[in-house]
């Protein structure tokens, strides 16, 4: 049975997280993963290149040597395991899942706010405070996205909760009520 990307990402990230906690290297591993994430964001096709069967083994080994070079210990071993199991194209998902576990461990909920216009820093902080309070966390961190189709308002997503306060959602709800 083939596993979907979400399941794979969660399994790998959970194993890495638990090992990091056990070895008391959680902060170090998290910092290294942030650097690894930057590399994969700067070279979006890297995971596919290292997984693709069309690239010959010598080329992949050369790429892997360069990729592994700045990392050590648990993170280097993790990269090798992910490579050996041909899951490099899922690495960003694994890192994101690890970061969710990391934040959860520290009492921080991680979420996303989608608005029509960019939020000011003050607006973002107010949303983070309210979200942390609403979900029972010490702190909240949100990333901001822009979606002009919302017309107005915002959508807040965190910890499997979605609060849709967009004008678009309200109009759709009114349309549905009027049609029935």
From TrEMBL:
<keyword id="KW-0175">Coiled coil</keyword>
<dbReference type="InterPro" id="IPR026015">
    <property type="entry name" value="ATP_synth_OSCP/delta_N_sf"/>
</dbReference>
<keyword id="KW-0139">CF(1)</keyword>
<comment type="function">
    <text>F(1)F(0) ATP synthase produces ATP from ADP in the presence of a proton or sodium gradient. F-type ATPases consist of two structural domains, F(1) containing the extramembraneous catalytic core and F(0) containing the membrane proton channel, linked together by a central stalk and a peripheral stalk. During catalysis, ATP synthesis in the catalytic domain of F(1) is coupled via a rotary mechanism of the central stalk subunits to proton translocation.</text>
</comment>
<feature type="coiled-coil region">
    <location>
        <begin position="16"/>
        <end position="43"/>
    </location>
</feature>
<dbReference type="GO" id="GO:0005886">
    <property type="term" value="C:plasma membrane"/>
</dbReference>
<keyword id="KW-0406">Ion transport</keyword>
<keyword id="KW-0066">ATP synthesis</keyword>
<dbReference type="GO" id="GO:0045259">
    <property type="term" value="C:proton-transporting ATP synthase complex"/>
</dbReference>
<comment type="function">
    <text>This protein is part of the stalk that links CF(0) to CF(1). It either transmits conformational changes from CF(0) to CF(1) or is implicated in proton conduction.</text>
</comment>
<protein>
    <recommendedName>
        <fullName>ATP synthase subunit delta</fullName>
    </recommendedName>
</protein>
<keyword id="KW-0375">Hydrogen ion transport</keyword>
<dbReference type="GO" id="GO:0046933">
    <property type="term" value="F:proton-transporting ATP synthase activity, rotational mechanism"/>
</dbReference>
<keyword id="KW-0813">Transport</keyword>
<dbReference type="InterPro" id="IPR000711">
    <property type="entry name" value="ATPase_OSCP/dsu"/>
</dbReference>
<dbReference type="Pfam" id="PF00213">
    <property type="entry name" value="OSCP"/>
</dbReference>
<comment type="similarity">
    <text>Belongs to the ATPase delta chain family.</text>
</comment>
<keyword id="KW-1003">Cell membrane</keyword>
<keyword id="KW-0472">Membrane</keyword>
């Amino acid at each position: 049975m083939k596993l979907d990307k979400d399941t794979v990402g969660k399994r790998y990230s959970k194993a890495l997280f638990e090992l990091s906690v056990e070895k008391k290297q959680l902060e170090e591993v998290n910092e290294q993963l942030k650097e690894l994430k930057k590399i994969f964001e700067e070279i979006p096709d890297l995971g596919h290149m290292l997984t693709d069967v069309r690239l010959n083994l010598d080329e992949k080994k050369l790429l892997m040597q360069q990729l592994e070079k700045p990392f050590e210990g648990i993170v280097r071993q993790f990269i090798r395991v992910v490579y050996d199991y041909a899951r490099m194209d899922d690495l960003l998902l694994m890192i994101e899942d690890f970061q969710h576990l990391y934040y959860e461990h520290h009492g921080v909920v991680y979420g996303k706010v989608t608005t029509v216009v960019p939020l000011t820093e003050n607006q973002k902080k107010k949303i983070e405070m309210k979200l942390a309070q609403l979900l029972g966390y010490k702190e909240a961190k949100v990333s901001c996205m822009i979606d002009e189709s919302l017309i107005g308002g915002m959508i807040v997503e965190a910890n499997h909760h979605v609060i849709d306060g967009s004008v678009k959602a309200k109009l759709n709800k009114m349309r549905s009520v009027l049609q029935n």
